[in-house]
Amino acid sequence: MKHLMRRCLIVTISAWALLSCTAEDAGISVVIGPTTIPRGDAVGAGDITVNNGLFAVAFAVDTAPPWGVARGGIVDIAIFRDGELGYDIASLADFMPNNWSSWPTTYQHVAIENQTADEATIRTERDWGDVVLETTFHIRAGDSRIQIVTSMTNKGKETLDDLHSGYVVWPDGGSLFGMPGLPSLSVGSEEAALGDWSAAYGEHWVLGLHAPYSEIMAYGGRDRYLPHSLEPGDSRSFEAWLQIESDGSLAPLVQTEIDFRQLASGRISGRVESDDGEPVKRPAVVVTRDGVTYAWTVGNDGDYDIKLPTGNYEIYATAKGYAQGKTQNIRVADGGEINIDFDDVRPPGAVHIKVVDEETGRPLDARISIWRDTNPS
User: Fold this and answer.
1) I want to staple 164 with a disulfide (CB 3.0 to 4.6 A). Which of 99, 150, 252, 342 is the partner?
2) Distance between CA 269 and CA 305 in Å, rounded?
3) What are the DSSP calls for 245-267, one per residue?
4) Where a domain ends, among 209, 231, 255?
5) Which position has the higher pLDDT, 372 or 339?
6) Are residues 80 and 99 in the same domain?
7) 242-271, pLDDT tens digit by residue?
């Protein structure tokens, strides 16, 4: 095995000794201090930034997170493109012990518990009243997913009832998709959802949260909670995966759920052309179930593909600046390969409007409003 030369720095944060090492040719790097993420909020001397080659995330150690949340969670996320970090796309990714209730806390300990060329583990310990919260973030080289595990233990003498605990992911800007099957739901039960993930997205990024424990969503899917109680001495564990993708496609989130749940699945692929015969540079193929948006994939140079759990779907093609094509019905079988081409996506056109006074014929100023678009979510 190739020997890795290491350069190490010992620092102390919240009375814990932290070891930050950079390994030559390693896939993981860790930096302590103000984050290197452009427009990042983690500016404290003890803040921690972890880079896994695909993205970088910054943990608030000295920096105060937004909205009165205790220190220790992720406050910055940026994606690598052509070897450079993009701008921060997130405000907060963390565990909430009881929705957005007050957070009485006396300590927050944050440590780099483990770092190798392949993985970094950040461990955060905090109190919430009489409850001890321990959260570990597992960041692996070349993996677009962060595994997050939290235990909450009631050290007090009173039972805590009606808690809503779970993870939240709040982006900076972009659009909210919510959950598959529930794209228009802001708050409520997840019972009718078609998957256990929620997402926010932009043209060139996706933040997905896989939360199989969750039963209630809030804020359009940014919050994912389990209603529960916690008796004295009892502990409860939560696990979720934060998925960070460099494109606006939801297909990688579907693929992760297929892999995690070992779902029977098939693949759909094909080509998208406009009705004048030209390939669409970045086609979007949208997948619905019973008319409700499930997911979409973004293709390249006219080609697209997406893997889906078995079942019946409807799909159509569109693209930025293009109109929506005709919807087609499909059935995905286990191990099946379906090829569907689209050639009816209409390219942009020109509309010439002249507004004049009816009596004098003089030109008038006017405002044109778009009353409906094709945003699938």
Assistant:
1) 99
2) 4
3) ESSS-SHHHHHHHHHHHT--EEE
4) 255
5) 339
6) yes
7) 999 999 999 999 999 999 999 999 999 999
Q: What is the pLDDT of the chain when averaged over all its residues?
A: 91
Q: Are residues 248 and 283 in the same domain?
A: no
User: Cα–Cα distance between 272 and 250 in angstroms, integer?
Assistant: 18
Report strand pairing: 197-202 vs 131-140: unpaired
Measured CA to CA, the distance from residue 202 to residue 57 in angstroms comes to: 18
Does residue 177 have a pLDDT over 80?
Answer: yes
Separation between Cα atoms, residue 282 and residue 172, nearest integer Å: 24
CB 266: neighbour CB atoms within 10 A? 18
Check whether residue 54 and residue 143 sit in a common domain: yes
Instruction: Give the residue among 257, 327, 293 at the shortest CA–CA distance from 184.
Output: 293
Report yes or no: 151 and 352 within 8 Å, Cβ to Cβ: no
Instruction: Give the pTM.
Output: 0.88
214: how many CB neighbours lie within 10 A of its CB? 26
Cα separation, 359 vs 129, whole angstroms: 73
